[in-house]
Amino acid sequence: MNYIxxxxxxxxxxxxxxxxPFSIKQKLIGCIILLVITFVALFIFEVxxxxxxxxxxxxxxxxxxxxxxVNHNLISALSVxxxxxxxxxxxxxxxxxxxxxxxxxxxxxxxxxxxxxLFGSNLNLPWYENYRWLSISILExxxxxxxxxxxxxxxxxxxxxxxQRKIILLSAVLFSILHYxxxxxxxxxxxxxxxxxxxxxxxxxxxxxxRVRYGFIYCCILHILYxxxxxxxxxxx
Length: 237
Fold this sequence. Notes:
Elements: H1 3-12, H2 24-55, H3 74-92, H4 100-120, H5 127-149, H6 154-162, H7 164-177, H8 187-191, H9 193-196, H10 198-213, H11 216-236
């Protein structure tokens, strides 16, 4: 089976896509191939495109990535390599395959994170305020989970099945937008948003395909492998 052709057919020509159930071996091979495609996309959009545009004089500078404030220790490395990818997949891609529980989990976790980020993650707050907002965000997440789970969602299920690829595109766009925090915000980056976020959009499509065709666990494995390898390269360099 041609894994690369199947990936492109999924988005461009679904009628010719091989969509029979995959074996575990096929899923693992597919993840490795998608990982290679992701790094190729990274090289194209983060190296070749900026070099061409800057050297040609079309742009004076390329938007800079912020200096990471993360300490170079085992805990922070494990967080970037394992914890963050799983959270991002729970929030950003668990729900693209419709299931009432999946949708409940994704929205509840996302809403809890947003509330805590907005009100409870300020380092200047007293420790008890941080824990208070953490508790509120957890309770709010649990409430949303059971609220969504209790609703009749037949119409949503039909909508998901009829618009599967559009939903993946939406998740890829959201994945791209949420990575704005990696860059120093300026007028330049606003003008270059489509080019700057092209890699994140592409990787969102790759992860979305893995989520739909291979399953959530393999999507997480792919994301963890990418982050781990990228982190290893950064530490070595």
